[in-house]
Amino acid sequence: MLSRIAPNVFRCAICLDNHAEDSIACVDGCNHPFCRECLRDYTKSKVAERRFPILCPVCITETDKRDPGVVGDDTVQQIGVSNEDYEIFEELQITSFCIPLHCRRCEQTMFVDRQEVQEAKIISCPWPRCGFVWCKACQQEVQVGTPQHSCDGSSELHHLMQQHGWKNCPGCKTPVQKSEGCNHMTCITPSCNTHFCYIEGDMIIKGGTRNEIHNAITTHYTGCKLFDYN
């Protein structure tokens, strides 16, 4: 609200001097009145400190003020800050909504929407001629059209195992690829010693004596194919 003391005169909320209304500058959201010189000096000091948003100097003194006024772009232009200060102010405006994104492939740095980057798990370079895609968490390149990315490679491995019919050891879950020979597999992971069938991935026996292992294998393959060509 304007602090009027006479027609066409107002009192600046900073210097408390009386000024003609043609030198007034009001802050957006609260309309606290200031002379342009005081608000310009205040704005310049906040720009120099790289503070953004620039809050109304009166509102910040009111402890119960929940929604303080803000010195907006129109007001900054109205009070006549220098070109250098205005460029810094514009940069602060941009960085409040955007963050710089650097692509290591094209080596371009561009401002992108802050919220989009914060919410995204996979980042795409916005440079039209680049198209590089990477994981925000692990920074690894993500190939378009491939299985869903996982930082530890588990998703890609699962897809590869399904694609090639590989099996996990039922004892320790270590991935196993059969290259040749029979369907009886013995896990070589230390302390595992699980014997299993490669056809369905079923456990035959885990550990045991030589005779116990032999009997378990013989029993299993009475109803299953030991060799694929049987």
TrEMBL record:
The kind of enzyme this is, by top-level EC class, is transferase
- Metal-binding found in the keyword field: yes
SMART domains referenced in this protein's UniProt entry, alphabetically: RING
Give the source's domain of life in one word. Eukaryota
Domain RING-type spans what residues? Answer: 8-228, 12-59
PROSITE patterns from the UniProt entry: TRIAD (PS51873), ZF_RING_1 (PS00518), ZF_RING_2 (PS50089)
Q: Name one GO molecular function term.
A: ubiquitin protein ligase activity
Part of which pathway?
Protein modification; protein ubiquitination
InterPro entries in the record, alphabetically? E3_UB_ligase_RBR, Parkin-like_IBR, TRIAD_supradom, Znf_RING, Znf_RING/FYVE/PHD, Znf_RING_CS
Cite the entry's keywords alphabetically: Metal-binding, Repeat, Transferase, Ubl conjugation pathway, Zinc, Zinc-finger
| Keyword Flavoprotein attached | no
For this protein, the Enzyme Commission number is 2.3.2.31
State the Pfam families in the record.
Answer: IBR_2 (PF22605), zf-RING_2 (PF13639)
Q: Which reaction does it catalyse?
A: [E2 ubiquitin-conjugating enzyme]-S-ubiquitinyl-L-cysteine + [acceptor protein]-L-lysine = [E2 ubiquitin-conjugating enzyme]-L-cysteine + [acceptor protein]-N(6)-ubiquitinyl-L-lysine
Its GO biological process annotations read: protein ubiquitination
Q: Which protein are we looking at?
A: RBR-type E3 ubiquitin transferase
* Source species of the chain: Agaricus bisporus var. burnettii (strain JB137-S8 / ATCC MYA-4627 / FGSC 10392) (White button mushroom)
